[in-house]
Each structure stands twice: as structure tokens, then as C-alpha cells.
Amino acid sequence: MQYPEPIAKLIDSYMRLPGIGNKTATRLAFFTIDMNQDDVDQFAKSLVAAKKDLHYCSICGNITDEDPCEIDRDQTRDQSQVLVVEQVKDLMSIERMNDYHGLYHVLHGVLSPIEGLGPEDLNIESLIKRLQTNEAIKEVILATNATPEGEATAMYLARLIKPAGIKVTRLAHGLAVGSDIEYADEMTLLKAVEGRTEL
Ligand SMILES: [Zn+2]
Q1: Which Gene Ontology biological process is one annotated for this entry (predicted)?
Q2: Average pLDDT over residues 75-102
């Protein structure tokens, strides 16, 4: 027997999510059918609103429902530092440790020749433009992950930025090689930011 079309479609939708196979998708679909109507309505509304109301900040690439984002609107933050991360998730991890009060720039990826990702695929052009037009920025902290792609991206950016006379630093290697900022504990992150070295 085939599933009725509405549930087949729901299973199909769940399977589009990362890490969810047929079995999990089927379980989630049947769970959804058993949820009460209000919860399902709320779930559907959240999905649509998250996609519709969230955008990338035109200055830093952070995810936001207002442009510029909350961090860029906050004039109490240190306007002289820009910390460059691969993903919004990394920005969130660094914000959680509550010790860094500068600005950010989100690349939305790393250089990866294998995946065919070049500089034009990342949020790099806006970073360069930002550095050229904002004289308040004195230091760029490269906080890409300690993976080969993260290191290569940091080196690429350092070569690009340093000629402009802006200080370029890299997070200290308290982070294990190959490790992701997203999963680092707060103490490790704190030490990595404090012990950053000039490139
Ligand atoms: Zn922003």
C-alpha cells in the first residue's frame, strides 16, 4: 500500500533536511499528524516566517530580521575590531562566551577547490569594501576553523587585507587542528581569542 499523498509529501519534505533519511522522515511525518492542530499551525508559521523575515545583514552577513543587524546597530560595541567567521553559528558561539565586544563578518563558507568554492562564492567582496570605507576598523581577526580549508581561507584574506595597513590576527592554536569553532567550549574560545597572533 502507498501512503496517502499528503503524508507522502510530508515525508518527502522532511527528507530534504540534512541527516534525515526515509525512516526518520516517516517517523517525523507520523508524529506531526498526531500533534494537536495549534502546534502544527505554529510549526508551519515558524517555518514560513523564518524564511520570509530573515535576511543576511548587508554589512556583516549575520542573519537578521532587521538590516543592519543588532550587532552593527549597537554603537557601544568596539568599532575597531572585525572578527571573521565561516558561519553564523560560529558568530553565535563567540557571542555566547560574552567576552568579545567587537564587530563580525560572516563569510558563509570557506575556500574549497574540491567543492569549486572560490573567493567570489564567499562574502569577501563586502568585507574588502567595508575595510576600504570604514576607517574605524583597525584590526581584522581571522577566526575561520582550524581545518585545511579554514587555514587556506585565513591566509588568502591576510594577503588581501594586510597591504591596506590593517592589523590582521589569527586565533591562537588552542583550538585543536581540524576542530570547529562551533563546538569549542567557552574557555578554549576565550583563550584562542585572547592569545591571537599577528599574521
Ligand atoms: Zn550585521
Answers
A1: DNA repair
A2: 94
